[in-house]
From TrEMBL:
Cited Gene3D superfamilies: Metalloproteases ('zincins'), catalytic domain (3.30.2010.10)
Keyword Protease found: yes
Protein name: Peptidase M48 domain-containing protein
Cited InterPro entries: HtpX_protease (IPR050083), Peptidase_M48 (IPR001915)
Tree of life domain: Bacteria
PANTHER family: PROTEASE HTPX, PROTEASE HTPX HOMOLOG
Amino acid sequence: MATTRAVLSGWRDGRRTRPALPGGTTSRFVLLIAAVAAGGLYVFLQAYFLVPRNADYFFDTFSRCFRDPRIGLPDQSSQGFEESQRLLASCQQPAFVDQARWIAIGFLLLGGVSIACYLAHPWWVTRSRCERFPALPSLRPRRLSRFPSREDPDEREIAEYLDHLCRTVGVQPAPRWLLDPLAGTSNGLAFGLPRRRRVIIDAGLVKRFRDDRDVFRAVIVHELAHLRNRDVDKTYLTFGMGWAFQAVAVLPFGALTLHSALSGGPSVIPAAALPYLADVPRALGLMAVLTLVVHLVRNSVLRARELHADATAAAHSGHEAAAAAAFSRALREPPATGRRPARAALARLTLRLGYWPTTETRHRVLGEPALLTRPTMGELLGAGVVAGVFTASADDLVGTLYRLLWGKLNTLSGDLAVGCTIGAGLTGVLAAAVWRTVATSDPAPRPTRATWLAPPAALVGGYLAGASLPLLTDRTELPATSLEFQGFAWLPRAGPVLLAGAVCLTVWVVSAARGMVHRARGRRALYAVVATSVVSFAPWFAVWYSVRRAGPGNGFQPALGDAPDLGSSIGWYTVLSRWTGFTWEPLTVQGRLPSALVGLMLLWLVPLALLLFPGRRHATGPDVRPQLGRALLAGLAGGTFVIAAGTALPFLARAALPPAVLHYSGAPRDTGFPTVYWHTYVALACVAQGAVALVICATVRGHRPALVLAGISLTALAAALGRALAFGVVGCTGLFGGPARRCSVPFVPEILAEDLRTITLRGLLAALPAALSGAGAGALARRRTPTPRTADRPRPPARIHRWALAAALVVLATAVVCATAVALPRDQYVWSLWFRG
C-alpha cells in the first residue's frame, strides 16, 4: 500500500513526482469531444436539407447550373471538358458555401452552449435541489454559509485540520469551504471556476469529525482529489457538452425530421433527389444510437474521475477509510431485491453504465489501483464507433471542401485526407491503450494473451459498426460514396485487412512497451511510441480507407501480371512472369506517399535508439547490442545473397531462354524480358527479406518487430544498390540485345530510390508470414531443448560497441531519408493528377 500511495499521491521520499497511474479521465474526455463532434457533424449535414429554405436554395442552384448549355453540353476536347468543370464548380459554389456556413453555425452554437453551461455551473450547484414539482422552487439559492470559522473555538480545530489536508494532498491555494446545514448526509461536493474553487460539506459529515475521523478524512480527501486531479473543469464541461448536444443537435433534428415527415417534405426537391434523403424512422433510429453513444461516453468520463479520486483518497487515508467513503457514496444505488430476474439484470446493467461507479468497482479499484490505467474494451469499442460515424459524415464534408477549394470532387485525395485524420486518432488510441495494458502488468511486463487480439478487435469492430450505421438510414444509396454498390458486403472484404493491420500495430507496441516501459525516463517512451504509431500507421489506414471503396469489386484482391506473348509457350517462363509481376492496389497507392519509407524506418529506429541509450538511471534489463548486431549481420547476409543471385541471373537466363525471347523488349500491353528480369530480381529480394525475418525471429527473443524491420531494411537497401551491378552485368553480356555492349554500372539516384521503395514494400508481404513462422519455430525449439538458467553466472560483456551500432543505424536511416527526398519529384505528377481529379 505504501507504493500505491506514493504512485497515486505523487509524493515519494519527500519529493514531488509525476503520477504514474493516470485515471483515464482525459482520454475519455477527448473521446467525448470526438463523439459530440461526430454526432453533431452528422446531424447538421442531415438537418440542412430538412429546412425548406436551405433545400430550395441548394437544389435551385443545382438546377440552374445544369440548365446552362455551356455546362450541359461541353466540348468533346479535353480543354472544353476542363472549362465545363470549372464553370460547374463556379456555379455550384454558392450552394456549398451556404451548406458550410450552416455547419459552422451549428458547431459554434454547440461550443457556445457547452461553455455557457460550464460557466453557469456554480450558479446551478448553489440552487436548491428539485425535490418536488413545480420546479421553480429548485431555482432558489441554497442556504450555504462560510465554514469553518477560526473565531469559533469549536470550528477552529476543523479549520486547521482542513488546511493540513490541503497541504498533504497538494491543493494550493485551498478552496473555499461551504456548509449545507440542511443536508443530513455525509457527503461533499467540489465545484467552481478556476481560481475560485469551492467545496460544499454536508452537515452530517461535520458530525463525523468527532465520531468517525477516518470517514471524515476520506470524504474530504476525495473531494480534494477532484481538485488536485483537475476533475472539476472536465466534469462540468462533460455535463455541458451532453446538455448542449441534446439542446442544439438532438431536439432540433428530431423536430425537423418529424415536421418534414408530417408535411410531406419540401416540395421543391426534385424527384430524382428524393432517394438520397434519409428515411425518417431510420434517421431517428440512428440519431437515438448517436445520442446513446454520447451518453455512455459521458458516463464513462464521470465514472473515471470518481474512481481516480477514490484511489487518491486511498493513497492518503488508507484502504479502510477510502472503502468506507466509497460505500457511503454507493448507498445511493437502489436495491435490486424483490425484483424479477429480468428487471434486476436491467437494473444492474443500468447502474454499471451510469455515471456513478458501482460498489464492486470501487472496492476493486481500491484494492488494485492499476485498474485505473488498464483500458476497457468498452472504451476501445466506443472510440471505434465514434471514428466510424465521423468517417461517414466526413465524406460529405470533405466533398464540400474540395468543391470550394479546388472546384471539383476528388475522391482519392479526399479519402487520403480523411483517412489520415481518422487513422491518426485510431492508431493513437490503440497504441496508448496497449501501452497502458503492458505498463500495469507488474512486475514483469508480460501482457495476457487477450492483449494481442482483444484491443484491436474491439477498436476495428466498433469502427466497422460505426461506419456502417449510415447505410441503415438511406433508402437506396449514399451520395458522394461508392459503398452503396457494395452494401454491407464491404465488411467481410475490407474488415479482415483492417484487423490484420491493427494486430500488426498491437504487436509492435507490445514489443516496444515491454522493452522500454521500465528503461525509459519519464513518459518520453510513451510519447515516442504513440507518435511513431501515428506517423507510421495512419497513412496505411488512409490507403485502406481509399481502397475499401473501389466500386463493386474488391480492391484488396491481388492481380497477377500479364503473360508475355513472345515466349508464352515456355510454361515456367509464363508462370514466372505472372507471379513476379503481380500488383496489389494498396501497395501501389502506398508507394506514392512520402511516408512509406520514413514510417517503416521510424518503427525500428525509435525503439532501438531508446534501447541503445536508455540513460544511466534506467539502464536495466538485458542489453540489446548482441541482438541488434545479429539482426544487422543477418540483413547484410540477405543483401549479399540478392546481389550474388542478381549478378548470376543474366548467365542463367542466357542458358535457359532463346535469344528471341531475351531480346524482346515488350509492348505497351505485352510484357518483355527486361520487365520479367526486373520483377524476378525484386522477387529474389523479397524472398531474401523473408529469410532474414525468419532467422531473426527464430534466434532472438526480445524486440523482434524492431529487429526484423531493421534487418529487412538493410537487405532492401543492399538489394537496391546491387540492382545497378546486376544491370551492369546485363549490359556487359548483351542480354537485352542492342547494337553494342556496355560494361559500365548504371547508377541513377532516382531509379535507386524507386527500387528501394518497391523492394521494401513488397518485401513486407514475405517478411510478415516468415516472421510468424520464425517465432513459432524458435518457441518450439526452446521448448524441446530448454536452456539452463544462468542467473547466478554473470553475462559476458557485449563485444559490439554501442556507438558502432548507432552509426550503422544512422547510415541506414540517412539512406532511407535521402531515397524519400530523391523520389519526391517523380511522384509530383501523380499527386497533381490526384488533386486535379
